[in-house]
Amino acid sequence: MRGLFIVLEGCDRAGKTTQTQLLQKFFHARDRKCELAKFPDRTTSLGITINSYLQGSQALSDQAIHLLFSANRWELIDSLESKVKNGVNLIVDRYAYSGAAFTSAKGLDIDWCKSCDKGLLKPDLVLFLDTSNKTMSKREDFGAEVYENLEFQSKVREQFHLLKDDSWKIINASGTIEEVQAEIQTHVLTLLNQDSYAPIQRNLWCGNE
Ligand code: NYM
Q1: 99 alpha carbon to ligand 1 midpoint, in Å?
Q2: Is-cis flag, bond preceding 123, omega within 30?
Q3: Phi, psi values for residue 6, rounded to 5°
Q4: Which atom of ligand 1 is nearest to the CA of 94?
Q5: Going by C-beta distance under 8 Å and a sequence separation of 6 or more, which residues neighbour residue 104?
Q6: Which residues, judged by CB distance below 6 Å to any ligand atom, belong to the binding site of ligand 1?
Q7: What does the pLDDT read at residue 16?
Q8: Mutate which of 51, 94, 145 to test ligand 1's pocket (most atoms within 8 Å of Cβ)?
Q9: Keywords for this entry (predicted)?
Q10: 19/129 Cα distance (integer angstroms)
C-alpha cells in the first residue's frame, strides 16, 4: 500500500513545524513509515538563493522569486513521489498553496501564481493551521524574515482561504500544542482507517479548483 501525502499549511509562525514533528511521532507509534519534508527546501542550490531572498540579502522581482519557489518543488517532486509510492507516509511543511497565497498577497494574479505548480502531486490531505493575527504576533521570532509582518500576513490568510478545496481541513491553531495535534490526528486517522487509497496523481490544480 502506498503512503499518504499530507501537507500542513498556514501563515508564518502558525506552529506547522512543531505539529509536523508530533504527527511524525504519531505515525511511528503505529509502526508506520513516515518522513518529513519542507518547502522551501533551503539545501538545494535554488533553495540557497531563496534563503538569501527571505533573509533580505538578495533582491529578486516578485515573479522571479515565485518561479524559484515553484522550481524548488519541481526539482524535488520525483523523489517525494517515489517515497509515497514505496509506502512512506510523507508530511510536508508548506507546499504550492503557500506559493500561491504569499505571491498573490503581493497583488499578483492568483491564477498566474497557481499555473506554475499545476500538475504537481495532489496531496491526500491539506491541514490548514488557521491563526488569528493576535496569536501570530505573540509567537517566537515573528518579524525575522521578509513577509513577517501582521498586515501582510492577514492578506496571506485571506488568499489561503481562496485556495481551499475538497482535500482541505481547517484547523483552529490558536489552541494549545496538544489541542491542535489532537484535531490533526482525528483527520489523519480517518484516512489511515481506509482499506485502500486511490493512486496518487500529478493533478494539482488540473481540475476546476
Ligand atoms: N513561501 C514559502 C513563499 O512565499 N512561497 C512558497 O512557495 C513557499 C513554500 O517562504 N514566509 C514563504 C513563506 C514563509 C517563507 O517559509 C519561508 P518557512 O516555512 O518559514 O521556512
Answers
A1: 7
A2: no
A3: -115, 130
A4: 9
A5: 110, 113, 159, 162
A6: 12, 39-40, 54, 69, 94, 98-99, 102, 145, 147
A7: 95
A8: 94
A9: Kinase, Transferase
A10: 10
How many residues belong to the chain? 209
pLDDT single digits (tens) 64-117:
999 999 999 999 999 999 999 999 999 999 999 999 999 999 999 999 999 999
Place of cell 522551501: 40
The torsion defined by the Cα of 96, 104, 126 and 88, in degrees rounded to 10, comes to 10
Taking the CA atoms of 69, 154, 131 and 200 in sequence, report the sign of the dihedral they define.
negative
Is residue 62 a contact partner of residue 106, using CB atoms and an 8 Å limit? yes
Task: Give yes or no for residue 138 having a pLDDT over 90.
Answer: no
Report how far residue 168's alpha carbon sits from residue 171's, in angstroms, rounded to the nearest whole number.
9
pTM for this model (two decimals)? 0.96
The three grid cell numbers given for residue 59, joined into one nine-digit string? 533582491
C-alpha cell at 169: 481541513
Q: Which atom of ligand 1 is nearest to the CA of 39?
A: 9
Tell me the CA distances in angstroms from 71 to 56, 95, 134, 205, one per residue in order: 20, 12, 33, 16
Does position 55 have pLDDT exceeding 80, yes or no? Answer: yes
d(CA 131, CA 134): 8
Residue with cell 533551503: 42
Q: How confident is the model at residue 133 (pLDDT cuts 50, 70, 90)?
A: confident
